[in-house]
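Input chain follows. Return structure tokens only.
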Amino acid sequence: MSTSETLVRTDVPEITAAERGERLRAAGAAWSDRIDADRTSAHLTFRATGSGEGAVASRVRAGRYEFVVDEPAPLGGDDVAPNPVEYALGALIGCQIVVYRLYAEVLGIPFDDIRITAEGDLDAARLLGKDDTVRPGFQAVRLRVELTGPESAERYEQLRSAVDANCPVGDLFQNATPVTSELV
């Protein structure tokens, strides 16, 4: 892969709450109009590709972006990047933050700041072929969402309920998703 076609960005531009709100309202209105005009326009397909590097690392490309996934040394990795389950927790946090901001606008429930911590419990015995009675993935995931702002606890609970019901990555964690695999 040529680095000239890959965008690696770690800085996030500053934005005011008013700018964020306007951007979310405009995007929501545009998508709403698009879906009203053609229901199938809501059907999206996302794609990522990856290749192995180092001991057990992967270089993944998603759109114009590229990132590395690895394992810590005790699991045979070079420990140069987060492992797959840490990325999964990060994806859940990222999606939750987006959906909190979106539904805060939709429901008129403002908040000043958001911080989320995700913890997942995993029994590596299945991964290592020691116990096929346990799940290979997380047995449980806990989210701690900290919101600061002017609203009551009841209003923020209303917001949390909307986020829990509509977060796409949250849905991936909570419900079975069919996965097919083809070896070529």
